């Protein structure tokens, strides 16, 4: 950078950068610890009866050894081999790198959410329309602090430049509906 920089600003910038790298390393250490604990879970499906499909380069790009920050990426192949979620989430475009965080948020017990509709509602990814007497009172997505839902939103945002069918669908819907979500409307009380 070229400019007239004050030394105290450069010092705080240097500290912020080092603190960012420390936090990134702590996240990687946490992911590696989760990977060590994953073999304790027994697989939900038999790999002999239902073998894993090959990782296609058109679906999952080849993994680089490190992020741009120089911190190694934890291996999500353990989640894939163990088939702990009964679904190979590493095959879903956008979720390849988020297999471990998704497993830590969702867990193995899906009995609380028996159908996909229940799961999507729990993630707060589906719209919530309040209709009374045939009149739309409020529409939008519920405000829920759910980290698993946030992972799915991040996966959807990453599909914009993806050459996969999901990326094509996203671009087609954005062209049809517009780039952003509709503005949030406030909930009104019916009188």
Essential attributes:
about 190 residues; about 5% strand; mainly alpha
Report on the architecture of this protein.
With 191 residues, the protein is mostly helical. Helix content is 40%, strand content 4%. The protein has six helices and two strands. The chain has helices at 7-37, 77-82, 99-106, 116-123, 147-157, 165-177, and strands spanning 130-132, 135-138. Strands 1-2 form a two-stranded antiparallel ribbon. A hairpin with a 2-residue loop joins strand 1 and strand 2 (135-138). The longest helix is centred in the N-terminal third of the chain and has 31 residues, at 7-37. The protein is extended, with a radius of gyration of 21 Å. It starts with 6 loop residues before the first helix and ends in a 14-residue tail after the last helix. The model is unreliable at 57-67 (pLDDT under 50).
